């Protein structure tokens, strides 16, 4: 996504305009009340609707000025007092400043922002309110940076809500995992936080704290695998898989999250480039889901439609295709270079340009760029103290703590005793490497605590050795590492992956650790006085079967890429100041899974194909989706359900509708059911109890399954999750809400959501409760 489109000329030009920008510490805005022209412009009159004000701006622009605004580095329009605007900024897990790229964030006197854990680890907390609070903190820091005069845009291209379909995907680390319900809920929570809505939603109004953009729409999860790259890849996706896997997170992001931005992806889906797909952008996103915002291309995604994919016959055809499809702004230069000729050649009506400009200026107005001095606006009091505030840094620690997953703890090796642990060896290439903790899409952090630094705060006698020359471990210092291990009472190995192994534009070809790294782990473990602790940093899953069954490896912790406070959070878990409760948001597959082509997009299994993700995969697993241990044991119990039968025979919109059959099961399309049923919520209460000696925060995952996972049905499907904090011995009743239309339906081959008759089983842990659908 990173690009090198220069806006230097525009920036120099607008910096001298008193109407737009008085000094370097003042944020850019239009409609300055001190300027005499402001009163004469209806677009500056806040008593008019945004629609009226935007129409006024568009009516005043020449064709050249209109075209100039269709790219992400939108130049100033001095005669109207409209400042330069940069549409591209990043905030995946913290506001990002790139020193080598021109984005909307331009640090000068500000030097850092809070860096939260990479999204895949935050997702492991299964805590939607935590996700909201992270989004809220990011939105506040973004607004504070703008108010300080160090931002030329407030539109952030996050979150990444693609499904982590294949464990080899280099960008899976950016996502909330493989489940569409988790991913959709993450999108809702994060977007509401960033944009200034409440956690429950519905209070946003027209003012945006910052703009969130859900990406990459749709079915994008191949970057560069064995010569197949994202620019030319044509994802062959069934209507069934689009309906219940790839598109639901975007529907949630739009309908419930009210995101003000969407990014269309590079790839094609069934032959059609996403950015040129009218059915996807206009008919589905805007028409069916009610999207109200702007749609940007990924960077250079318009040019590749002609240059790499051959879908368009000329640059002008590519420009016409994306604007007619409903895209609004181009990260790249194609719309700047070829829109005018497309208009002259009558391939594109000016009305399509005006439509795009309406969406773009509407978002800028909602951000307050046309309301005069930002100090006097709703978010004008958010200042520098919000950036790297203690509250936000504490939240970064909390997020890392709650995401880290305990995968193994033989004979309760962990937690270590703070009083009795006399010496520690810390070994591994990830033990003291600060940037590795941040994953990708990060900027300067408030502070960074590495695992080694965190452990040094607990144990005085610590010996450290990297063990390898780098994470790829092309050379291992095995002999030296063994000597260090032998001298210590306990050993913590901090291993795993980094961005040289998995990242944007780099998918993995294996699921195992680098060979010499794995050999180092086993050798050090055998040489140590006591079973060792293995800590893994990674975004994607790793086949660590060797460690799972090695008696010399007593405990395993997966810490994702835990952000600026990762070392502190990890140490608190190792020494028992925090009881781990994270649960895996993805399935961990064995190495044998690499036989499955990454480009096979099918979710559902066949006779020679195992399927994908916990919902459909039929094959061996290293660890299951939702797996995670604790220092406590928890039990669950379903309390009696007030309604265990759902009657649909009297809930049809039209009594003439005939029930259809699928493999002997009758079913009804959800679209044919009355609104009253789909609005209905059936309470389901689960009693959870902590049987351990430590208090703990514990995520409860509620699934539903059919009696048989045949005919394309999922093996099981997550329908709800909540976190509960329980003291030692404490129990609590946790209430879920079951929506028959949402939670008991599945997609059929035509992509329609249907509800089948018969038994549906709610499950949590080993407990189940039956709900029967009667037609």
TrEMBL record:
Presence of the UniProt keyword Metal-binding in the record: no
Keyword line: Glycoprotein, Glycosidase, Hydrolase, Secreted, Signal
Signal sequence extent: 1-22
Xref: SUPFAM superfamilies: (Trans)glycosidases, Beta-D-glucan exohydrolase, C-terminal domain
InterPro entries, alphabetized: BXL (IPR044993), Fn3-like (IPR026891), GH (IPR017853), Glyco_hydro_3_C (IPR002772), Glyco_hydro_3_C_sf (IPR036881), Glyco_hydro_3_N (IPR001764), Glyco_hydro_3_N_sf (IPR036962), Ig-like_fold (IPR013783)
Any single Gene Ontology cellular-component annotation: plant-type cell wall
Subcellular location: Secreted
Boundaries of every Fibronectin type III-like domain copy: 698-768
Gene Ontology process terms (BP): arabinan catabolic process; xylan catabolic process
Keyword Acetylation listed: no
UniProt xrefs under Pfam families: Fn3-like (PF14310), Glyco_hydro_3 (PF00933), Glyco_hydro_3_C (PF01915)
GO molecular function terms attached to this record: alpha-L-arabinofuranosidase activity; xylan 1,4-beta-xylosidase activity
Homology family: Belongs to the glycosyl hydrolase 3 family.
Name assigned to this protein: Beta-D-xylosidase 7
Protein's organism: Hibiscus syriacus
Lineage, uppermost ranks: Eukaryota, Viridiplantae, Streptophyta, Embryophyta, Tracheophyta
